Here is the input.
Amino acid sequence: MPKRPSRRDLIAAAGVTAALATTAKAQPKAKETAMPASDHVGFAIVGLGKLSLTQLIPALKKTKSAKLVAVVSGHPEKARKVAAENGLPADAVYGYDDYDRIAKDPRIQVVYIVLPNALHAEHTIKAFKAGKHVLCEKPMATTIADAEAMIAAAKAAQRQLMIAYRCHYEPMNLDVMRRLRSQSLGKVRQINTTMGRQADPSDPSDAWRLDLKLSGNGALGDMGVYGVSAARYLLNEEPIAVQAWAQTDRSDPRFKETEDLINWQFRFLSGVIANGSTSFNYAATMAFEAICEQGRLVADPAAFYGGNRLTVVEGGQAQPPVPAPAGDQFAREMDWMADVVRGKAPMVSPGEEGLQDMRLMEAILESAAKDGATVKTDWGYRRAVDPAKVVDAKA
Ligand code: NAD
Here is the structure.
């Protein structure tokens, strides 16, 4: 294996100045914001649900450039408890009713939106009005109009909008991107992505995901979006057409409003075909496979919080699976956001990336509603910055 380049090498090789300039074209350069006392970038977490409590707040203890400075929640008691546990003062606790007060809080530079999908747009736009940068969870929103309004609000405020696509910053995913770019197994011919799990309607965290209004599109936006996004970042190319089919048992109380099993096929100008699948009624799976002329790269799991593994199959022989480098994916992603805000890293997953996935998910649902009719998707979107060129592969 060739020695992995350091982040410094990669950024230099990609020409970070050029990358920053490209990003600046897509999003206006952020205005300078007052730095907190330490040189860490201050993050406010909005929404204290499962992801925030079990992953993000713990990850903020491992970050190099980001730190937790405030929490926003509709449950004052829970918020006060979380704040106390994390050494935050009482005035670092906000409710949704006094959220606008963050404008006057110089400790907060980045607002991280970790709410049900339908609430992303409202809280993102409010944060921009308060002069903050925003890191927003996936899927970006529940409608294309909301996603566009979020991008417009970032531009108007001259602030950064990053979508929390942790796989863009994860070493094993980056390794696969680089292997495919280098054609080490020949040209890639086909990508397969399988992203789903069992949804549990008795868990409040899943109840809103099965609700069409709050989730936008059920399993597709929750799990399938990883496959939509992966096909695009693995190939560094955009689909020109999609066909999709859905299989939903409406007698299953979970699927009164949203689709269950969806399979889609993206076609790319290069001739590559990407098959994707998602479901809220199959065993937890987050896997992808890239089939190349001379071998296969199988990442299974590819996008769990930990325990991801890559198997290289060459000449019909599977090499022993290689575990993904250790490290906290959420800490890496938040550190990247902090570096973007400080002008030390290019924006890799901007609002435009989230919007492209939203458009593709809408095209998938449109095709599925027409029993697999072809929907054209070549809208001319091109990724501004290839993660494989700028994001370090080291944990
Ligand atoms: P969750 O249900 O556990 O937490 C959501 C929080 O929002 C809760 O604290 C809840 O009280 C609050 N909330 C405020 N208004 C609400 C309303 N009207 N209805 C329901 N809850 C409301 O969800 P989660 O798993 O933490 O997911 C939050 C976001 O993070 C989602 O957008 C999800 O897609 C995303 N997510 C991303 C990843 C990832 O790996 N990047 C993983 C999990 C979740």
Q: What stands out?
A: Residues 225 and 357 are 7 Å apart (CA to CA). Residues 47-52, 74, 114-117, 119, 137-138, 164, 166, 204-205, 208, 214, 222 surround nicotinamide-adenine-dinucleotide (CB under 6 Å). Residues 1-32 have pLDDT under 50 and may be disordered.
